[in-house]
Design a protein that fits this description.
Helices cover about 30% and strands about 15% of the residues. By secondary structure, it is an alpha+beta fold. The strands form two sheets. It has a four-stranded antiparallel beta sheet. Strands 1-2-3 form a three-stranded antiparallel beta sheet, with no helix packed on it. Helix 4 packs across helix 5. The protein is globular and about 55 Å long.
Amino acid sequence: MPTTKKIDFAAIKLAATGRWNQIIPALTSLPADVLTKTSKDHPCPQCNGESVIRPRRDASSSGSIACRNCTKNKLTSDGIATVAAFSGKSLLEAAKAVAEFLGTESSQLDTPMRDLIADICRDRRMPVDAFMQFQPKITKRGRERLEVVRVGIYNEQGETHSHFDFAVGRKGLFARGYEMSGMFFPSKLPQSGETWLIVQGCEDSAALIGLG
């Protein structure tokens, strides 16, 4: 008798945190800017502009939005529910679609990986949801194959030119052989007219995002 592979919703949501501005436009008819709160609501393309969309305050990391018509003005619980509501898919189908977009099977998003990121965040006093906006990846470092959480470092052209590794109980480590300087950005680069605060290091950046 064939078996059905269990879908780990929590693992998929954790992997998708901070990437909903890429995922939602790819899997629905919604543009990325519906996740950004502005002084005006966003016309809903699914309603042909007859209704409006409002994002939750943390929509860029959670993927949660509401449409006055499509969701009866109730916020979706998360990005998977948003994909389901605006693509006509079931929650299970939406979760599978998100996992496929992320380029990984949900079974690969296992508990040890999630625990390592949580351990790093506890060690560095960073909110997990905020840190996930820096798109951390689990990898091995050096001959000792140290398990680390890696985030990209940007240069003045807005390009990822190096990386920085976090390990529990150790100081952060820059990439070997690359420039040991750069900037950390949470899922997006600064745009003209925006106001950004400059702080030192990824930990302070994540802490500031966590404060809203």
